[in-house]
Amino acid sequence: MRIQTLVVAGGQSRRFGGTKALHKLAGRAFIDHVLDAVTLVPGGEPWVGVPHVGSDPALTGHLMTRGDITLIEDHAALQGPLASIAAGLTQADRDGADWLLAVGCDMPGLRLDLLS
Predict the structure, then answer these.
(1) C-alpha atoms less than 13 angstroms from C-alpha of 84 in its C-beta half-sphere
(2) Residues 6 or more apart in contact with residue 107 via CB below 8 angstroms
(3) Is residue 16 classed as helix, strand or coil in its secondary structure?
(4) Of 12, 30, 68, 78, which has the fewest CB atoms closer than 10 Å, so is most exposed?
(5) Shortest CA distance to 80 belongs to which of 8, 16, 18, 31?
(6) 11-39 burial, b for 16+ CB within 10 Å, e for fewer?
(7) Helix (H, G, I), strand (E, B) or coil at 104
(8) What share of the chain is helix, strand, coil (3-state, %, to 5)?
(9) pLDDT (tens digit, 9 = 90+) per residue, 38-77?
(10) What beta strand segments (E) does 1-116 contain?
(11) For 72-113, how does the pLDDT look when each residue is reduced to its tens digit (9 = 90+)?
(12) Alpha-carbon torsion 108, 113, 10, 54, what sign?
């Protein structure tokens, strides 16, 4: 059984006042905490769902420095988290994954035992 992970990071963070994925906790971006947790799930490198590659240059630049992720662009006909999940499900099916584990980029306390 192959499990693919997807971190949904395409939100506009309007109420938050900035890119939530890049907000820092203990000196590290929220999304880095989440990616560290999902990287421990067997199944390959994690995916990060974004509206369009480059739509948030700071986030895209930050993610490109990691080198251990694949960016998945949101489903064009949808908006919000559902657009990332739909795109992730489509890609997971193409890649032969049995399951897609989708989590938010704003979950820095995520732990492997919870994901299990």
Answers:
(1) 24
(2) 30, 33, 34
(3) coil
(4) 68
(5) 8
(6) bebeeeeebbbbbeeeeebbbbbbbebbb
(7) strand
(8) 35, 20, 45
(9) 988 887 789 999 988 878 888 989 998 988 889 999 998 9
(10) 3-8, 24-25, 28-29, 47-50, 70-73, 99-104
(11) 999 989 888 999 999 999 999 999 999 999 999 999 999 888
(12) positive
**Residue whose structure tokens are 């992970």:** 5
Distance from chain centroid for Cα 6: 5
Q: Give the pair of three-digit tokens for residue 20.
A: 């939530």
Name the nearest CA neighbour of 41 among 8, 3, 71. 3
Can you tell me the distance from the alpha carbon of 46 to that of 48, in angstroms, rounded to the nearest whole number? 7
The residue to which tokens 């080198």 are assigned: 67
State pTM to two decimals: 0.90
Q: Which residues pair with 5 in a beta bridge?
A: 101
